[in-house]
Amino acid sequence: MASMMGNSLIMLTVTSDPHLHSPMYFLLANLSFIDLGVSSVSSPKMIYDLFRKHKVISFGGCITQIFIHVIGGVEMVLLIAMAFDRYVAICKPLHYLTIMSPRMCISFLVAAWMTGLTHSLAQLAFVVNLPFCGPNVLDSFYCDLPQLIKLACIVTYKLQFMVTANSGFISLGAFFLLNLSHIFILATLRKHSSGGSPKTLSTLSAHIILVVFFFGPLIFFLYVTSFTISG
Question: Is there a single domain that holds both residue 133 and residue 173?
Answer without folding.
Answer: no
